[in-house]
Design goal:
The chain is built from no helices and eleven strands. By secondary structure, the chain is mainly β. The strands form two sheets. Strands 2, 4, 5, 6, 9, 10 and 11 form a seven-stranded mixed beta sheet that branches. Strands 1-3-8-7 form a four-stranded antiparallel beta sheet, with no helix packed on it.
Length: 115
Amino acid sequence: EVQLMESGGGLVQPGGSLRLSCSASGFSFSRYYMSWARQAPGKGLEWVSTIDSDGTTTHANSVKGRFTISRDNGKNTVYLQMNSLKSEDTALYYCTTNVFGISRRGQGTQVTVSS
């Protein structure tokens, strides 16, 4: 069974940092791209970052230069390092992938940026 489990969210002040983690199981992790997406209250799902199986990364313009996606294939884990956080980064963050032709995501971890 494919499972994705996010962790690391919390309450942080503007300008602060958080590192999100997503532990994956049930598939050959190293062979698949992994992404982070987020959903702010009252808004749709927004793509944030992707890391391919070869380590190539892409980021949305809204987070470029502030967020970094990385992966540890030995731990079947993908990370999202978030720096210089802004109030508009407040959202429920999901890790996502497409395995066996089906889009997958975890339950999400809440990030709240507020003073």
